Amino acid sequence: MEMEDDPSPAAAKVWRPGIDEVAEDEELAYDPTAYDCLHRFQLDWPCLSFDILRDDLGGPRSSFPHTVYLVAGTQAASARQNYVAFLKLASLGQGRHGKKAAAEDSDDDDSDDDDSEDEGEEGGEDGDRDMADGEGGERAAPAGKPSVRGRAGEPPATFHFRMVSQPCGVNRVRSMPQQPAVVAVWGDNAQVRLVDGSKLLSELAAETEPTAATAKGKGGINKAKPQEVKPLATHSHSAEGYALDWSKAKPGRLASGDCRAKIHVWEPAEGGRWVVGGAHTGHEGSVEDIQWSPTEETVFASGGTDGSIRIWDTRERGRPMLTAAGAHASDVNVISWNRGVTYMLASGADDGSIRIWDLRTFGGGAGTAGAEGTAGPAHVAQFLYHRSHVTSVEWCPYEGSMLASGGADNQLAVWDLALERDPEEEAALAAEGNAAAPEDLPAQLLFLHAGQHDLKELHWHDQIPGMIVSTAGDGFNLFKASNM
């Protein structure tokens, strides 16, 4: 008598947000081995912008647990409730992520089924550490709330903060590379302020217990209440803006661009002052982003709502050196200058497209950018994956072929230009239980992170290879993918 084989389970597939539907007989399965770590946290108000602060802990570093310093600016319900927050996230472990953690989790589940149910409810849908704000939906000062669930022997993650009062919502915040405690803050009141958080960062570095929302500091100062810190410098534009960047080649040099197409360059002066120069003009719409050259002190790039990318020299204020008119068919929202391959620039636009540019084609010759209105250079690569406008793009600081992008489609994608599709390799990996990649998935798409809503900005950590931090309307994610 012949026995029929048991029907084999359906092969796992990659689910693409916004593209694939979930049938009634299907369910989404989260794979914790996709991440080496994944943490969530939030302030009491959404943050459109943040920056990662370079620290004194060394790098590149890879051993868990990690400590990360950030600065972020809020968009509160009323102007007077806003602040700039200096944050320290300490004891960031792997939780239930990574292959080893997954194996330990499987062993624990055999004996801790009851505990797992309780811990899963406490720690969020993925069982990772979740640092959230006050309970009950009330607007409270930021506070850490690590989940119970974590890898055996790991200390709980801790959340530390100091707040500086801000008279308006924060459109963008950037830390000076050479002096991380000095941050530039672009407010929605058309004003750029420079704030020195050195004292606050020193307090955070020395703090071992999580910051308590009601704790009293020296002199009876409530740590949870935003402090008044006099700005190092202030400059008012004729309109609010978003474009803001510090030079990596010249300490203290800053550029800010506004919604009325004007760009101002800030120069450090004696006595801890800054001198703000006259306007660089050339864009025909709002200047959305600015990026300084990683190597040239006087050169920066800008992108704007006129669809152009322009290259400027601070010694020539009247007009840009080069213009790629029509770089995108829609608004250029964000740009990023590659620090490893300094002739490469990436841009993201309102139509969801990401384009890669070779700046060597911007200078002279047929089909390149020159005078206003002439044909611009051709992009060397294009990704059309995002299904809504691109809100952030950034090259990887230690791998010149990799970049990450975020969009209003609530997806964060990591790209590697060096990748090509290899069917044989994919077939070999499938034997390990990996989900089969759709044929139309771009070969250069290395990793896809979802789960945040209204994604605004992302940054790679300079000192922890593979770690990315992102902010959205519903808070922050900090993660490291297992394949990076």
UniProtKB/TrEMBL annotation:
Acidic residues: compositionally biased ranges: 104-128
InterPro entries per the UniProt record, alphabetical: Glutamate-rich_WD_repeat, Histone-bd_RBBP4-like_N, WD40/YVTN_repeat-like_dom_sf, WD40_PAC1, WD40_repeat_CS, WD40_repeat_dom_sf, WD40_rpt
GO cellular component: nucleolus
UniProt entry keywords in alphabetical sequence: Nucleus, Repeat, WD repeat
Keyword set includes Repeat: yes
Residues in Histone-binding protein RBBP4-like N-terminal domain copies: 25-90
Gene Ontology BP terms: ribosome biogenesis
Keyword DNA-binding: no
Main subcellular location of this protein, as a coarse class: nucleus
WD repeat extents: 280-315, 325-361, 383-417
Biased composition (Basic and acidic residues): 129-138
Region described as Disordered: spans on this chain: 96-155
Localisation per UniProt entry: Nucleus
Family (UniProt): Belongs to the WD repeat RBAP46/RBAP48/MSI1 family.
Listed name of the protein: Glutamate-rich WD repeat-containing protein 1
Organism: Edaphochlamys debaryana
